[in-house]
Write a structure and sequence with these properties.
Layout lengths: L1 H11 L10 E5 L2 E5 L5 H20 L8
Length: 67
């Protein structure tokens, strides 16, 4: 039964990177978003992706620990 639960969690977060333009790394219990910061376009893309991730976590009732 535990294996089934783990599979459900994997499927649950598979859509996290939908629409993300920057680099999104998903590892076990850690997700990192990175992007270009030296241009206005890069900063805007990163901010849009941060907003998209925040919207996804709110929709899926998950919490993000910033750090």
């Amino acid at each position: 039964m535990e294996v089934h639960t783990q599979a459900e969690v994997s499927i649950f977060v598979i859509d996290l990177d939908d629409g993300i333009k920057c680099t999104l790394m998903k590892l076990a219990n850690d997700t990192k978003l990175s992007g270009e910061m030296d241009t206005l376009e890069g900063r805007d893309s990163l901010q849009e992706d941060l907003d998209r991730v925040e919207e996804w976590t709110n929709k899926n009732l998950m919490k993000v620990q910033q750090g």
